[in-house]
Amino acid sequence: MNNYVVKKICCIGAGYVGGPTMAVFANHCPNIKITVVDINQERIDAWNSDDISQFPIFEPQLDKLVLNCRNKNLFFTTNLEQSISEADMVFISVNTPTKTKGVGAGKASDLKWVEASARQIAKFSNSHTIVVEKSTLPVKTAETIKKILLSSQENNLEKTEKSFSVLSNPEFLSEGNAIKDLENPDRVLIGGDDEKAIDALSEIYSNWVPKNKILKTNIWSSELSKLTANAFLAQRISSINSISALCESTGADINQVKKAIGMDTRIGEKFLSPGPGFGGSCFQKDILNLVYLSSFYKLEEVANYWQGVIDINNWQKSRISRLIVNYLFGNVSEKKIAILGFAFKANTNDTRQSPSIDVCKDLLEEGAHLSIYDPKVENSKIIDDLQNDLNKLKVNQGYGYWEIASSVLDAANGSDAIILLTEWDEFLNIEWEKLIKLMRKPAWVFDTRSCIDYKKARKAGLNVWKIGNSLI
Ligand code: UDX
Ligand code: UDX
To answer: 309-466: same fold as 8-217?
Structure first.
């Protein structure tokens, strides 16, 4: 049998995953026409903008890659029908948030966008199409996709030559590092049962990924591996964060503990930085998915084990808010507090599940006046995340208020405390001598990322709280 030849790719979803992934594909595969489609016209216009600062995603090196290929072999459009109908391979890269209502609310992923994508592929494709799950999906989602695609084959009134192969090809990129991760992945995972389709996708990756890094599995292993990888990573963070609290109580220093355990090659040094809790669109959602899946199969102990990782994460966020209030004499009402960093980590403008949101909400609840500065997050996102209207309504009932600051100095001006929540480079070398002059005394800095030069801050006269360290 002949191999499948892929000349045209369609990617549904021009978000944090679809955009960078397809930019890297396009740069390495000049002979493949790649079209990224999205229902959101504004997002597509932003990708097509001449002004790179208007791109919908901030990701180091991404602009160069897009400019190199855009309108040559990389296109951004809302024309789903045309893009699917001409594609040999379609990636599904739409969002899969945790369900907020109905069966599985708070745990299961909402698959309505994935299902809609499968129906669109079923409708508009007109030859053999390889459908690739790129979104992180609950195990067995491929089954649903297959059923939808199959029904279109059965009801094919136009009698076109439709047929499909479904693959799982989860994305392991981490935001802020997306291009590096895509260019030089630890592994590429392709799950499926159609060997020709697996080979076709593998062939594309082998343009830049060594063949020994391309791992082929059955489809369920592939789906479960993605959830498991994220759960393991998140578990490391909850583990180190739980120990950070113990360090604060015992006089141990989390950075010394981190170094000591990280030198054990079985543990390894990566992903052991204490912080205000993990954020991002994946970790919580994927663990909730594992919890849901485990409960579904009546594995309650497994479900409870993974739920513990989320519980510690939530606890870490709220314990940080509580201790800030305690250090500020148990009262932050009307006090100005500078919030440095709103993104869920450095080098991204993404705020999904950012711990900053929870810490800010807790402090607003206590009546604080927050001045928020982030070098990359758009004001509109902060407004959405903190629910502006609710904020205004509550202002007369002891609820705090917040504003967006234009710089570190602006945020710090007149404040009692600075809370560092995202480890942006810009915050690593703050001139504390200059800053403290603008602050009300006693002035505090709470470093939830353990990244400032605390000696300099103390020398300048600030009280310093640093995560996982009670002795400074
Ligand atoms: C991805 C994954 O796909 C998700 O499973 C993973 O867990 C997180 O990362 P991401 O790219 O980060 O999602 O999401 P987002 O930036 O929200 O992009 C998704 C895009 O799909 C949006 O631009 C949205 O408009 C688009 N979309 C959604 C469609 O084009 N069609 C739809 O039917 C639904
Ligand atoms: C994650 C996975 O790393 C990636 O493989 C997957 O495809 C998507 O989910 P992402 O959410 O973009 O990527 O960022 P990541 O770097 O994993 O950080 C997630 C959260 O954990 C951030 O809030 C980060 O600040 C936090 N974190 C990370 C820590 O608190 N400590 C660490 O040591 C590492």
So the answer is: yes
Residue nearest to ligand 2 atom 6, measured at CA = 172
Ligand 1 centre from 103 Cα, in Å? 22
pLDDT of residue 101: 84
442: preceding bond cis by omega (within 30 degrees): yes
Ligand 2 centre and the CA of 230: distance in Å?
9
Note the ligand closest to the C-alpha atom of 236: 2
Kindly report the CATH number that applies to the domain delimited by 8-217.
3.40.50.720
pLDDT in tens, 192-210: 999 999 999 999 999 999 9
What is the distance between the alpha carbons of residues 364 and 448, in angstroms, rounded to a whole number?
A: 18
**CA nearest to 107, candidates 257, 289, 337, 332:** 289
- Does the domain formed by 309-466 have CATH 3.30.530.20? no
On whether the pTM is more than 0.70, the answer is: yes
The full set of domain ranges for the chain reads 8-217, 309-466
Per-chain mean pLDDT for the chain: 93
Q: Output phi, psi for 80, to 5 deg.
A: -65, -45
Give the residue-averaged pLDDT of 117-132. Answer: 94
